[in-house]
Design a protein that fits this description.
Elements lengths: L6 E8 L7 H14 L2 E9 L11 H11 L5 E4 L2 H4 L3 H13 L3 E4 L4 E2 L3 H34 L11 H12 L4 H8 L3 H13 L1
Parallel strand pairs: 1-2, 1-3, 3-4
Antiparallel strand pairs: 4-5
Helix pairs in contact: 4-5, 6-8, 7-8
Length: 201
């Protein structure tokens, strides 16, 4: 018995208004046609940097919400940097798709989670995310230990540059304060201070 044709959507993004998503769209359509996938939607962020979080990319946000509503089976994207340029943002997007049981096809990286090999690669991305979090936590602990050894009073602890960058990226991606604190091993008050600084900027 023939398997049901997959419902596919495209996610297209270009960084400047002078660029076009047409080439991305054409190549992805060729792949969809070759695989017998039915394209049921297109989500697009034109003139928006991949460094911006989900809250500043309406096309990405709408696509992820529709993924959770089971409106399609696979997201097709021309390259991984179209989805995101920071590891935390990218992992958050991948986790949302995985949790919604939606597959991902990345044309330039030849990543296709509808295949066993693609699913294995998808799992490796999660491993790298865990590694990044554990490294940040280790740096936080080491910094606190150094401060204690030097006799520094730890009243309102500050965080290092790497940790602050990670906090900012997660906040931009829409991750909650409590979750960020847990992931990075820092207090929620530190996360709140960084969020307040971002809002005031």
């Amino acid at each position: 018995m023939a398997s049901k044709a997959k419902r596919a959507v495209f996610y297209l993004r270009v960084s400047t208004d002078g660029q076009t998503t047409e080439n991305q769209r054409r190549e992805l359509q060729q792949v969809a046609d070759a695989r017998g996938w039915t394209v049921v939607g297109v989500y697009e962020d034109a003139g928006i940097s991949g460094a911006k979080g989900r809250d500043q990319r309406p096309g990405l946000d709408r696509m992820l919400k529709d993924a959770a509503r089971a409106k399609f089976d696979v997201v097709m994207c021309w390259a991984v940097d179209r989805l995101g340029r920071s590891l935390p943002d990218l992992l958050a997007t991948l986790a949302t798709l995985q949790g919604s049981k939606v597959d991902l096809f990345l044309h330039q990286q030849a990543l296709d989670t509808t295949t066993p090999a693609g699913r294995a690669m998808f799992g490796m991305l999660g491993v790298f995310g865990e590694f990044e979090r554990s490294m940040i936590q280790a740096r936080v602990v080491a910094g606190l230990d150094r401060a204690r050894a030097a006799g520094t009073k730890l009243g309102r602890p500050t965080v290092g540059g790497d940790v602050e960058t990670a906090v900012r990226e997660r906040l931009a991606a829409g991750v909650g304060i409590l979750k960020i604190g847990r992931e990075l091993g820092i207090g929620t008050s530190a996360v709140q201070r960084i969020k307040s600084a971002m809002t005031a900027a």
